[in-house]
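Intended use. Records like the one below are meant for learning the mapping from a protein sequence to its folded structure. Do not use them to infer anything beyond what is encoded.
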Amino acid sequence: MLGPVETRSVSPVFVGRTDELDTLNDALARAAAGEPQALLLGGEAGVGKTRLVEEFAAAACRRAAVVAVGGCVEIGADGLPFAPFSTALRALRDALPEEFAAAGAGQEEELARLLPELGEATSSRHDEQGMARLFELTARLLERVAAAHTVVLVLEDLHWADASTRHLLAYLFRTLRAGRLLVLATYRADDIHRRHPLRPLLAELDRLRTVRRIELARFTREEVGRQIAGIRAAEPDPAQVDEIFERSDGNAFFVEELAVAAIEGCCTGLTDSLRDLLLVRVEALPESAQGVARIVAEGGSTVEYRLLAAVARLVEDDLIEALRAAVGANILTATPGGDGYRFRHSLVREAVADDLLPGERSRLNRRYAEAVETDPTLVPADARVMRLASYWYHAHDAARALPAVLDASVVARRRHAYTEQLRLLERAMELWDAAPEEVRAALRPVDYTDVYPPPLPERRGGTPSGCDPATTPLRYLDLMAEAAVAGRFCGERERALKIAKKALRLLQDEHDPLRAAWFWVQRSRLVQALARGDGWQELANAQDLVRGLPPSEVHADVLANAASWSMLHQPGSEAFAAAERAVEYARMVDAREIELNAQLTLGALMVDSGDVETGLAEMARVKQAALQEGVAHVVGRAYVNLPSELDSVGRSREAVPILREGLVFARRFGLLDSEAWIYGNLSDSLYALGKWDEAAEAAAGALGSAASAKPRGAGALRLAHIALARGDAAEAARQLSIALTHYGSHDPMPQVLLPVGRITIGVAAEEGRLLDARVELDRALAAGFPPGTQRYGWPLLLAAATTEADARALPAAADGRAAVLDKLAEAARKLTTGAPVWDAYERWTRAELHRARGTDTAAVWSDVVTDFECLDRPYDLARVRRRLAQALLEEAAGDDERHRATELLRLAGAVAGHLGARPLADAVGRLAQRARLTLGHTPPGALDPAESLGLTSRERDVLRLVSAGRTNRQIAEELFISPKTASVHVSNILSKLGVAGRGEAAAVAHRLGLFPAEPLTAEAPG
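Structure written out for the chain above:
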C-alpha cells in the first residue's frame, strides 16, 4: 500500500505585496470609520490573489471585522445564480444571526431568492424591475448589518460570475453609501478577452471614483527566492532560483510547482508546456488517485464527499486512500466546511478537465446526474436543480436534460436571475427536437411557464381552444414566450427580439390569434426599447388579431398597451376609447393589474382633455388601490404620472410632496426607471416654483438612477433648460446633445419633441442663430400639437415669439418675420389652454407677438402680470414684470410710471439674482440704467448698506462681481488677486450676509441696490 504523499508546496512565509496590503488595510480603516469601500483585485491566474485575500482576511478578523467570503463557480451559467452572494450572505448570517435577522425583517420572502433558508420566495409578479427590487433590498440589508459591525464581503473569481452576480455587484458598487462595509471582488485578468462578459463591467466600474482597482504583479527575482526558501525551509541555491524565476516568470503558483518538481528530482527535462507542467504531479499520483482527481475536475468547483463516493464507486477505504494521496500532494484540498473536496488551484482543475476524453466527460456527467437523482440529499437543496440540469445537459441525454433544464429555468426566474433563465430556455429550445415525443408530451405549461396568460376554461368568455394548461402539453412557443420576456427583463433585447420574430414566423402557419397578438405586443416593447421604431405598427397588428374575439387577458393587455402608447404619441379620442375598452375587458376577465394600468391611463387622458378634477381623482384612487393591493409597477407609474398631470395644470406645489413620496417608494422596490422619471418630474415642479438648485439636483438624479435611455434623456433636457435660463448657452447645448443621444430618433413623442424644440430655439437665439430657430419652429408646427399637449406647446410658442421680438431691431430678421409671426398667431389661436397657467401663457405669447410687431402696450403687459400674480411661478412673474416696466418707461415718463417701473424692476431683479438667472438680471440692470432708475434707496444720513453689513471695500468689490455672475477665477483676474483669495472673500461675504450661496448673495445685493447695473448695449432674451 502506497503511503500518503506529503509535499509542502505552499510557502508558510507570506512574500511581498506590501503596497497592496497597505491599500487593503487603508480601505478597511475607512470602512470601519463608516465610509463604504469597493475594491477590485485583478491578476493573472496563479499570481497570488487568493493568498493575498487570505492574509488580508486574517488581518481584518484580528481587527474585529466580520469576513464573509463567496466564490463564483467554474461552471458559470450552469451554476446557481447569485451563488457567491448566497454563500457570503450565509456566512454573514452565521456570524451575526441577530443583526442579520433584524436587517432583513419584513423582507424575508424577497431575500429568500438569494438565501432560501430565510423562507419561501414570494410569488410576486415578474417584471423588468424585479431584479432591481432584489438588488435594492440586498444593498439595504448589507448597510444595516454593517451599521454596528465592520463587514468585509469578499467575492472571488469574478471572471466565472453569472450575469446576475455581475449585475448585483455593479449595483452595490454604485449605490452603497452608508455602513461599515468593504466589498472586495477578485478576478483573473488574463482571462478577460475582448468579448468576455466581465470586460464591460470592469470598464463601467473604472468610471466610478468610489471603486479602487488593484492589479497584482508577478514576483521579482528576490521575492521568488524568498518564496522558494519558505517552501524548502532553507536557503535555495542561487542558480536554482535563477532557473525557476526564468521558467515561472515570477508567477507564484508556477514557482511552487517548479520548486516542488526540483525537490522531487523531476525538474530536469521538464516540458515547457503549461498543461504538462500542471499535470506532472497529478500523473505522479497512484492510478486510483488520478481517477478521483478526474471525477472531481468534472464535478464543478466543489464536490461533496458523499456525491464523490457515489460517482467514484470505490470501496470507501480505497476512496479515502486515493483522496489522502491527492490531498497530500496538494492537488486536492478539503473544503472549509469539511464536507467536500476541491482542487487547490483552479488551473490544475482546468488542466485535468481538459485532459478528459469526450466520451469520458459525458460518462462522468451521467454518473453525477444519476447519483443526484437517486439520492437528492447528496448536494445542497438550493443547488440541486441547477447541478442536475448541468450534469444531464453535458451527459448529452436530451430526454433527461430537457425537463431538468426547464426546472432550472424556473429556479432562475424565481430568483429574478433573468439572464440565466434566458440561457437555460435557449438550451431547452436547443434540446427540444432531440427529446423524444413522449418526453415532450409529458411536460405541462403550468409547471414551466409564467408570462403567457393561461387559457383556463373557467375564465369568463372562455378561450378559442378551451384547453387547460394542466392537461395540455407544453409547446415550443411557450418556451419562446418565456425566453422573449426573460430577454426583455434582463436587458438582452436583441436576443429577445430575435426570438419574438421567430415565434411570429412560426405562428403564420397556425391559427392562434391571441398568441400572435401577445408576441406582437412583446415585439412593440422591444422595438421601442431598442430605438428601432415607435412600436405602433406592431400594436396595430396585435389589435387587428384580437378584434372580434371574445374578451381575454391578452385582448385587454393589447388595448391597455395601445391606450398607453396613444397617450404618449397621439392623445385624443381614440386613445380615450382604447383605455375605456381596456378597463372594461380587464374587468370581464378579472385581470386586475391590467385594469389598474388602464385606469391610470384613462385618468391622465381625462386631465389632458380638460376634465381635470375627475381625472386627478381617478389617478389618485388608482395609486391608492395599487398600494393596498401591492401592485408595485402600477404604483411606480402612478407616482410618475399623477404629479406630472398636476404640474401640467400649474399645481406644481401639490406635485412635489407626492414626487418625494414616490422617490422613497421607487428606491424601496428598486424601480430604477420609475425613480428616474420621478426625478425628472420633480425637477420640472421645482423649476416652476423657483427652486432651481434643487431642480438641477433632481435632474442629475434622473441621469444617475435610470436603467434605460429615455429617462436619462429627460434628465439631461431639464439640465439644459436650467442652464439656458441661467445664461450658459454652451452648457445648455451640451446637455441638449446628450438628451438627443439618449432619446434617439425612432420614437417621436410630443412630450419629447416639443420640449426639445423649445430648448433648441432657446439655444439658437442665445447664439444669434435666428434662422435655425425658425427652422426648428417650422418643424414643430408641421408636427402639430395633439390634444393634451398644451403644457409643451405653449412654452415652445412663447420661446419662438420671444426670439422674434428680441430680434425685431436686427435688419437680418426682417426677411420672413411677418410670415413667422402670422404662423405663430395662428398656432396660438388653435392651441387650447385648459388651465389658468396656460391661459396666462396664451396672453403672454400674444403680448410677445405684439412686441415683435412693435404694438405692445403697458395695458397688454399689465394683464399678463395680473395673470401670473395669481400663479406660483416666480421666474415667469419676474420676466413679465420686467416687460411691463419696459412698456411703462417707453410709453410715458411721469413720476407714477417711473415709480411703478422701479418697483417692478426691483422685484424682478431680486428674483433673477436669487435664481441665478443672469440674462434676466442683466436685462433688468440695463433697463434701469437706461432709464436712470435706482433700484435701491438710501435715506439721507443713513448708513451705506454695505457698511451696515460689515463689508470691507474689497469685499464690496467682490460682491459686485458675484452679483454679475462672475466665477472666482474671473473675479481674481479682474481684481488682480489669486483665485484662492477670491474664494476666501466670497466665503466671508456669505457669512456676513447670512446666506447659503452666491445666488442668494446676489439677490441681497440687488434688493439693497448696492450696485448700479453695468451698461450693456445688446437686448438679451428673457
